[in-house]
Specification:
With 97 residues, this protein is an alpha+beta fold. The protein is built from 2 helices and 6 strands, in the order ββββαββα. The longest helix has 16 residues. The two termini are 24 Å apart.
Length: 97
């Protein structure tokens, strides 16, 4: 596991699925709590990258407290990741345990 990714300091893993890993983190520049969504596979196919970037673009279009805000998307340390605003929630899988 990395300690930093896309300028954010990773604090804990909160979910791991087939296609992505979700981390709770803090943005290094201002300490803002964020969530990192990182694609599981290093060097994904172009179609996966396009889908991921499209997800980011769609999230940026919404201005609602009910929808997580996308702050950044990029490539770092052989993987693609997205920085999302942290609403402080927990994964449903964790809550059901």
């Amino acid at each position: 596991m990395w300690r930093t990714f896309l300028g954010c300091e990773i604090e804990q893993e909160i979910f791991q699925g087939r296609g992505s890993i979700i981390y709770r983190a803090r943005r290094a520049e201002d300490g803002l709590p964020v969530v990192l969504k990182v694609l599981s596979h290093a060097y994904p196919r172009p179609s996966q990258i396009a889908w991921f970037r499209r997800e980011h673009d769609i999230l940026q279009r919404f201005d609602s407290k009910a929808i997580v805000r996308a702050l950044a998307v990029g490539f770092d340390q052989v993987r693609w990741g997205m920085v999302l605003a942290d609403g402080g929630g927990e994964s449903l899988a964790r809550l059901l345990k």
